[in-house]
Amino acid sequence: MKYLEKEVVIFMAIFLALNLLCSCEFERKKLKEDIVIMQSRPIMLPVDSMLCWWYGNDTLSFKSNNEALNFVVFSDSTKCSSCALKGMYIWDDFLQKIGYNYPEGLNVFFIFTPLQKDWKSFYITMKTIPPSIPIYVDTLGVFNRNNRHIPSNPELHTFLLDSNGYVLLVGNPLENEKIEKLFWQILEEKLGKRE
Fold it and tell me: What is the mean pLDDT of residues 13-21?
C-alpha cells in the first residue's frame, strides 16, 4: 500500500511540475504577444487633456521636449491608485539618476487613472502624501481611449518610448535588473553616454 501511495505522490509531483511548466510557457508566450501588439503602433500621450499635480497642487502641464524619449509609468483602475500614489517614493533615487544624467533628453510621465468612486480617496492621498514629482491624473480616460492596444497586464504599464511614441522597452526597471540594464543601454545609445 505504501508503494502505491509513493507512486501517486510521484505522479502528482510530476503532473504539477508539467502543469507549472506549461502554464509558465503560456504566460511567456502571451507576454511576448502583448509586447508585439504594444509595438505595433505608437502610444499617444494626451497629457494636455489630463490634470497635472505637483506637490499636491493642481498645476499647469509641464512643458516636455518633443524630441526626447518618454518614460511612462501608467497606473490604471485595475489596481488601487491611492496605493500606487503612496508608493511613489520608491522612484526617487531612480528619477534623481535620470535627472542628473539626462536632464533634457528624457521626459518622465506618471499617469494615474483612478476609478470615479475612488477619486475622493485618491485626492486625499494626493493632498496628504504629495509626490515630489509631477503626476498626471486622467479623469476622462483619454489615455486608455487613445491607446487601446496597451494590454491590461500591469507588468506592461511601464515603458520607454521613442520621440514618435513607439515602444523601445517594456517593463519596470525597479523590479527587474535586466530591464534596468537595458533601460540605461538604450538611453546611452539614443542620448549619449553620461557620468
Answer: 45
